[in-house]
Design brief:
Layout (H helix, E strand, L loop, with lengths): L6 E6 L8 E7 L2 E7 L14 H5 L14 E3 L5 E3 L2 H19 L4 E4 L6 H14 L5 E2 L2 H4 L1 H10 L9 H5 L4 E5 L3 H4 L1 H12 L3 E6 L11 E4 L5 H14 L5 H7 E2 L1 H8 L4 H8 L3 H13 L3 E5 L1 H4 L4 H14 L9 E4 L8 H5 L16 H11 L11 H10 L4 E5 L3 H4 L3 H9 L3 E6 L11 E4 L8 E4 L4 E5 L12 H11 L4 H4 L3 H11 L8 H6 L4 E2 L25 E2 L18 E6 L15 H4 L6 E4 L1 H7 L6 E5 L4 E8 L7 E5 L27 E7 L1
Bound molecules: iron/sulfur cluster.
The site of iron/sulfur cluster has 14 residues, from helix 1 and helix 8.
Enzyme class: oxidoreductase
Cofactor: [4Fe-4S] cluster; Mo-bis(molybdopterin guanine dinucleotide)
GO molecular function: 2 iron, 2 sulfur cluster binding; 4 iron, 4 sulfur cluster binding; formate dehydrogenase (NAD+) activity; metal ion binding
Length: 691
C-alpha cells in the first residue's frame, strides 16, 4: 500500500520548560522523529535537543494510549463509552454534588503539560461553568514558593532573564538546589559552555550533582539550611563593602532591616548550621560580590521546603544586594519544570488565588473586567490550594473533582493518604492520555490528545510564548483538551463552540483580559518564530527580554528586601529514622513518569526506582550496590535497588520521583510552607535496611 505523506510540524518540546524548538515528523498517526529546529534564536538548542527531546516523543505512539471514553461500572471495572454518555454523566454527577453539598464542594485541577489556551479554558470552566474558585495545578508542588517570593520582592513571579543572552553569557553563577544537567539539560549545556569560556560558577547543594563537576567551587550543604548560608553571604558582602550601594539606594527599600536580620549569620554560625566551611562561604561571596554580573539559578532543591518561600526571599535579597537585577546577563533564574508551567500553570490563572495574569480575584475592577468579557462574574474569593483540596476530601467537604492531565496520586506527598482522600470523593472525572494511577480512581475517564497532536501555545521558563503544532492526529476518539472542555461546557449550556473557532480565538480573549499578554496573537507569533516574551502589552510591544530595566513591578518602581528568618527542616533524623531523604529527577525520566515510562529507549537507561547510598553508610547497613533495600519513613515503606555512590554525605539518601513501584512519595510528609503551600518534599527522615 502507498504510504501517506510525512507531516512536519515546527513545534516546541513537551518535556521541560527550557522550551527547545524542533521539527517533529509524523505519518498516519505515528510520530516518526525529531530534528532540532534550524534556528539559534530560541532558546538554546542550536546545540541539539537532549535525550528526552530526541527520543521521548515515543510516548505518543504507545499502545497504552486512551482512545475512547471510559465509565466505571458498579463492579469497579471500566467499560468503553461514547463521548455523549461520558460528558452527560460528568454533567449529571457534578451537578448532583453541587446541589447536595454546595457550589464549592467541587474542584478542578489543570495541567502544565497542556497549552496556554487549554489552561485558560480549564480555569474558566471551574470559575464560570462550575462557579467554584477551587482550581489549582501542579505548579503548587514545584515553584509556588518561587512565585510567592519573587512577587513580594520584585513584582512578577517569574524568571527575569533570557536563556541564551543572559544565562548563557553571564560572568558568574550561583546554582543551588538544581540538578541542572539532568533536569534542564540544554540549559545546562549552555551554562557549561560559558564556564568553559571563563565564567565563574559556585554550586551549593546537598548532592554533588552533575553541574557541580564543572563548578569552580562545590559546597556541600546540609539539607534544608539554605537561608543560613545565603544570609551569611549577604552579611559578608555588606561587611566587606562589596554590595552595590548606588543600586540599593536608588532602586530598593528596607535595606537596613535586611542588614539587621543577617547580622547573626557569621561565617562560624553558618558553618555550624549548614556544614559549609567558612573559607568556601567567603570565597563564593567575594567572587559574587565582585562580579559585574551574576545569575542566581535554582530549582526544586530550593523550593520544595516547608520554608521554601524564605529560601527564595533570601536568594533574591542576595541578588538585590549585589545589584544583579534589571540589567542584562544578570538576575534571578528559577528553572521551571514542566514545558508549560510558566504559562499554563501560572500565567493562565488555574490557581485559587489568581485570575489569569496573576490578577486578584477579590479586586472589584478586575472582576468587572472579567464579567464584561465572560458575561458572568467569576467567584470573588480565593479557593482551595491543591494540598487543601486533599485535606477537604478527607474531611468529606470536597465531593467532586475534575482532573485534567495531572497525576496527584503519585505527585502528592504521602500518597497512601492522598489515595484515601481521593477515594472519599463522590465523583471523579479524569482527562488524560493514559490510564494513569490517578485515572484508575476515576468514575469517568476522557481520552485526550498529546502534545504532538495539538495546536496552541506554551510559555517557557524565560517567559517566551511559543507555538506547539500537530504532526499527527490524536488516536482513536481522543480529542484535544480544548475540544473536550468546549464539549463539556456545552452540557451546562455554554456555547463555547461558536465562541471559539480554534485556539487563536482563545488567545485573543486572553490578550483582552491579561495585560501581560495584551500584544500576543497568533498572527504575531507566526511573524515572530522566536516567540514573544511577556510582558507584551500591545501589538507594538516587542516583548520584554529581561525584566525591571525601568523599575520593579510596584507603584514606586522599587524592589523590596524581605528579610528571611532561618528555620531548619521540619523532620530531623533521630535514632529510629537516622537518614535524610531527598527526592528529585533523573535525566531519562519525567515527573510521575507517565510519559517516559512508556518510552523504551529511556526505560533501557533507568528501568526502575533506586536509592542512592553513600559507600560508608552502605557498609554500615550491610548492603552492596544493586541489592534491594527497604526504605522506611513515618508514612510508609518501599523496596528499591541500592545505588551505592558518594554524591551526598553518608547521612543523606536520594530517590527519584518517577516510578510507581518504589514511589518516593509513599515516604514524604504533609508539612507545608505557610506562604505558598508547597510541601516539604526535600527533607524526610528515613531508615534503610537490607530486605
Ligand atoms: Fe526538551 Fe528540555 Fe530536553 Fe530541551 S532540554 S529537548 S525542552 S527536555
Amino acid at each position: 500500500a502507498r504510504l501517506s505523506r510525512i507531516n512536519k510540524a515546527e513545534t516546541t518540546c513537551n518535556y521541560c520548560a527550557v522550551g527547545c524548538r524542533f521539527d517533529l515528523y509524523g505519518r498516519d498517526g505515528e510520530v516518526l522523529g525529531v530534528r532540532p529546529a534550524d534556528t539559534d534564536a530560541t532558546p538554546a538548542n542550536d546545540f541539539s535537543t537532549c535525550v528526552k527531546g530526541k527520543f521521548g516523543y515515543d510516548f505518543a505512539n504507545s499502545d497504552d494510549r486512551l482512545e475512547t471514553p471510559l465509565i466505571k461500572g458498579d463492579d469497579g471495572e471500566f467499560r468503553e463509552a461514547t463521548w455523549d454518555e461520558a460528558l452527560d454523566l460528568i454533567h449529571e454527577k457534578l451537578t448532583e454534588v453541587q446541589e447536595e453539598h454546595g457550589q464549592h464542594s467541587v474542584a478542578v485541577t489543570s495541567s502544565s503539560k497542556c497549552t496556554n489556551e487549554e489552561n485558560y479554558l480549564n480555569q474558566k470552566f471551574a470559575r464560570q461553568v462550575l462557579g467554584t474558585p477551587n482550581v489549582d495545578n501542579c505548579a503548587r508542588l514545584c515553584h509556588s514558593s518561587t512565585v510567592t517570593a519573587l512577587k513580594q520582592t520584585l513584582g512578577y513571579g517569574a524568571m527575569v532573564n533570557r536563556i541564551n543572552e543572559d544565562v548563557g553569557e553571564t560572568d558568574c553563577y550561583l546554582i543551588t538546589g538544581s540538578n541542572t544537567t539532568e533536569s534542564h539539560p540544554v540549559l545546562a549545556t549552555r551554562i557549561k559552555q560559558n564556564v568553559r569560556d571563563g565564567a565563574d560558577m559556585f554550586v551549593f547543594d546537598p548532592r554533588k550533582v552533575g553541574i557541580a563537576e564543572h563548578a569552580d567551587q562545590y559546597s556541600r550543604t546540609k539539607p534544608g539550611t539554605d537561608v543560613a548560608w545565603i544570609n551569611g553571604m549577604i552579611r559578608y558582602i555588606v561587611r566587606e563593602g562589596l554590595h552595590d550601594e548606588e543600586f540599593i539606594e536608588e532602586r530598593t527599600k528596607n535595606f537596613e532591616e535586611l542588614k539587621e536580620k543577617v547580622e547573626p549569620f557569621t561565617p562560624e554560625k553558618v558553618e555550624e548550621l549548614t556544614g559549609v566551611p567558612e573559607a568556601e562561604l567567603e570565597n563564593a561571596a567575594r567572587t559574587i560580590g565582585e562580579a559585574d554580573t551574576c545569575i542566581f539559578g535554582w530549582a526544586m532543591g530550593m523550593t520544595q521546603h516547608a520554608h521554601g518561600t524564605r529560601n527564595l526571599l533570601a536568594l533574591t535579597n542576595l541578588a538585590l544586594v549585589t545589584g544583579n537585577l534589571g540589567k542584562p546577563r544578570a538576575g534571578v533564574s528559577p528553572f521551571r519544570g514542566q514545558n508549560n508551567v510558566q504559562g499554563g500553570g501560572g500565567d493562565m490563572g488555574p490557581a485559587p488565588h489568581n485570575l489569569p495574569g496573576y490578577q486578584d480575584p477579590t479586586d472589584e475592577e478586575v472582576l468587572q473586567k472579567f464579567e464584561k468579557e465572560w458575561g458572568e462574574r467569576p467567584p470573588d474569593e480565593v479557593g482551595l490550594r491543591l494540598p487543601e483540596q486533599f485535606e477537604e476530601m478527607k474531611e468529606g467537604n470536597l465531593k467532586g473533582m475534575f482532573i485534567m492531565g495531572e497525576n496527584p496520586v503519585l505527585s502528592e506527598p504521602d500518597i497512601r493518604d492522598a489515595e484515601k482522600s481521593i477515594g472519599e470523593l463522590d465523583f471523579l472525572a479524569v482527562q488524560d492520555i493514559f490510564l494513569t494511577e490517578t485515572a484508575e480512581f476515576a468514575d469517568v475517564v476522557l481520552p485526550a490528545a498529546a502534545g504532538p497532536e495539538k495546536l496552541g501555545t506554551q510559555t517557557n521558563t524565560e517567559r517566551r510564548i511559543q507555538f506547539v503544532r500537530p504532526a499527527v492526529e490524536p488516536p482513536g476518539d481522543a480529542k484535544t483538551d480544548m475540544d473536550i472542555l468546549v464539549d463539556l461546557a456545552s452540557r451546562w449550556g455554554y456555547d463555547w463552540a461558536s465562541k471559539y473557532d480554534g485556539p487563536s480565538d482563545v488567545m485573543d480573549e486572553i490578550s483582552r483580559l491579561v495585560p501581560l499578554y495584551g500584544g500576543v496573537s497568533y498572527e504575531r507569533l507566526e511573524e515572530n518564530p522566536d516567540g514573544l516574551q511577556w510582558p507584551c502589552e500591545d501589538e507594538d510591544d516587542p516583548g520584554t527580554p529581561y525584566l525591571y530595566e525601568d523599575g520593579f513591578n510596584f507603584d514606586d518602581g522599587k524592589a523590596r528586601f524581605v528579610p528571611a528568618d532561618y528555620a531548619g527542616p521540619v523532620e530531623l533524623p533521630d535514632e529510629e529514622y537516622p537518614l535524610m531523604l531527598s527526592s528529585g529527577r533523573v535525566l531519562y525520566h519525567w515527573h510521575t513518569g507517565t510519559m517516559t515510562r512508556r518510552v523504551e529507549a529511556l526505560m533501557e537507561q533507568v528501568p526502575e526506582s533506586f536509592v542512592t547510598i553513600h559507600p560508608e553508610m552502605a557498609e554500615q547497613i550491610g548492603v552492596v550496590d544493586g541489592e534491594y533495600v527497604r526504605v522506611t519513613s513515618r508514612r510508609g515503606d518501599i523496596t528499591v535497588k541500592a545505588n551505592v555512590e558518594d554524591q551526598s554525605d553518608p547521612g543523606v539518601v536520594f530517590i527519584p520521583m518517577h516510578f510507581v513501584h518504589g514511589a518516593v512519595n509513599e515516604l514524604t510528609q504533609h508539612e507545608l510552607d505557610p506562604d505558598s503551600y508547597i510541601p516539604e518534599f526535600k527533607v524526610t527522615s528515613v531508615k534503610v535496611e537490607p530486605v
